Amino acid sequence: MSTLMIAISLIFAIAMISAAFVAIYAKRIAIAILAAGLVSLLASVMFLFLAAPDVAMTEAAIGSGLTTFLFFFVLGRVRGEKND
Amino acid sequence: MIKNFIVLLFLFGLGMIFSALLLGYTPDSELNLTGRYYAEHTAQDLGAANIVTAIIVTYRGLDTLGEVTVLFLTAAIVGMLLSTGAGKGKSLQRKLSQSGELLTTGSHLLVPLILLLGAYVFINGHLTPGGGFQGGAIIASAILLILLTDPLYRFSHQLISIVESISGLIFLALGVLGIFFAGGFLDNRILPVGELGSLFSAGAIPIIYSLVGLKVGAEFSSMLVNFSETEDS
């Protein structure tokens, strides 16, 4: 990997870690869910840097897409219960 | 206090292990024996442009069958656990919060495109990155988007289970045909290998991967649909 790639990877790694902290410490659940999805999205970009496009697609589809949707779905259900 | 210290110590140790691994890592200058075999033989033997797909579907096809079986078992168990409370008691009179205009309109626009992308990903699995599992997950996310927009939308369980069973059955049948007409179980050369890089190439790989995609999509969807239809008493 060239120096530029390493620099970009480092930026992504730092962004990933900060997104993970946001996911843990965010007060609002919606923001935490989005941050958790962002961790997966950045991870899939990292997989792309490491020349593994197939793994990157799996990560983007399942980690970033499906689970984020699922969390929002559950959140909607839980809030619906609360309003009853 | 002591708990925090232990956590910090654990993190420090983990960091030490990973940094030791990173510092001691030297990239291979050439492929190892197995990797070289795959890189040299895949294109001419199996005709698949994407080597990863050739490995997943043909060289290690049995593992893929196992993965699909595990996913099927998971979907079946989720269905069994969640269906015990369903069908009895109050009907769906519970007032759900209305989904917004933006979500409704956006999902009407996006759902067909997402389904199309999923089908594209698993049909082109032997040419481009991606394949059955990714395509199936994309299709399931479209289903989830529909459920997110309209929580009362009902999918036909029968249709989902028919798609799931038939694709699994054909997948197995193609694998068994490989024993008789080609080199072994799940060999893709029961159909002509064709020209490298065209859509109808790589023997049975596009068919098998499309079936895997449908199967995975149906399994994920059945989990989500079961989940959406549970009503806690």
Mean pLDDT of chain B: 81
What is the number of helical segments of chain A per DSSP (H or I, 4+ residues)? 3
Oligomer: heterodimer
Order of helices and strands of chain A: HHH
- Count of strand segments of chain A: 0
**Most residues in contact, chain pair and counts:** A-B, 20 and 26 residues
Instruction: State the domain count of chain A.
Output: 1
Question: What can you tell me about this protein's structure?
Answer:
The complex is a heterodimer of chains A (84) and B (233). Chain A contains three helices and no strands. The mean pLDDT of chain A is 85. Chain A is 89% helix and 0% strand. Chain A has one domain. With 233 residues, chain B is mostly helical. Chain B has one domain. The model of chain B has no long low-confidence stretch (mean pLDDT 81). Classes of the chains: A mainly alpha (84), B mainly alpha (233). At the A-B interface, α3 of A face α6 and α8 of B.
